Amino acid sequence: MVSFSDGPKVQIDMKRDEMQCLKDGEWLDDKVIEIYMRLVVRRSRSGGEQFRRLEVVKNSFFYTKLTKEGKGYDYSSVRSWTRKPGILDTDAILVPINVNGNHWVLGVVNLTDKRIEFYDSMRGPAEKHFQVLRRWIKDEWLDKKKQQLDLSQWEDYTPPRCPQQNNGIDCGVFVCKFADCVGRQLDLNGQPAPFGQQHMTLFRRRLCLELIRGKME
């Protein structure tokens, strides 16, 4: 069993059979994505200046709850899911998003660069996600800091050359690597790309090792 602890209120246990999703050809379990995001955040707290300081929303279904499973927007349903006000005192906030129950993408609220970022390995539409994340960070700022957050100068950003998958399976692995690259301050619009479909088998094995060890380099 893999057990991840991030303070007294965050304990995530994963049984050995649940890690079978890390094999080639399997869709990543939400627990894998949640633990990996927290490992990226943990590294950002102690890894040195080369890493961007990150936080992550409470769990991988935060966005699903916030949007009432795609039926609307309800900040009250997640208002208590973030620490007060710690999640805002960072460089960027990771928001893993499950789209329609069958595809993972990554939203990032980049507080330092003042932009909402969207990373999708299948180039899906981003507009509604930008709208939701803008609305959420304004509500969160008002609730936790008791101030209005002016987003008029903020940018909505999705990299034109974002790494793409060529199957219907590996979106979860791509989302994990997007988060890794955001933490490392790597350009996901770079040429050549920092990773691609050809690296997925290696990344799955590395993910497994990092989850077992409970840390990443």
Short characterization:
This protein is of the alpha/beta class.
Folded structure, characterized:
The protein has about 220 residues and is an alpha/beta fold. The protein has helices at about 30-45, 60-65, 125-145, 170-185, 200-215; strands spanning about 1-5, 10-15, 55, 90-100, 105-110, 115-120, 155. It has 5 helices and 7 strands, in the order ββαβαβββαβαα. Helix 1 runs parallel beside helix 4. The model has no long low-confidence stretch (mean pLDDT about 90).
Provide the CATH superfamily: Adenoviral Proteinase, Chain A
Q: How far apart, in Å, are the first and last alpha carbons?
A: 22 Å
The backbone outline, from C-alpha atoms, is globular
Q: Unreliable runs, pLDDT <50, ≥5 residues?
A: none
Total strand segments: 7
- In round numbers, the mean pLDDT is 91
Total number of domains: 1
Classify the secondary structure makeup into a structural class.
Answer: alpha/beta
Looking at the overall shape, the CATH architecture is 3-Layer(aba) Sandwich
The largest pleated sheet is described as: 5 strands, mixed
Give the amount of beta strand, in percent.
Answer: 15-25%
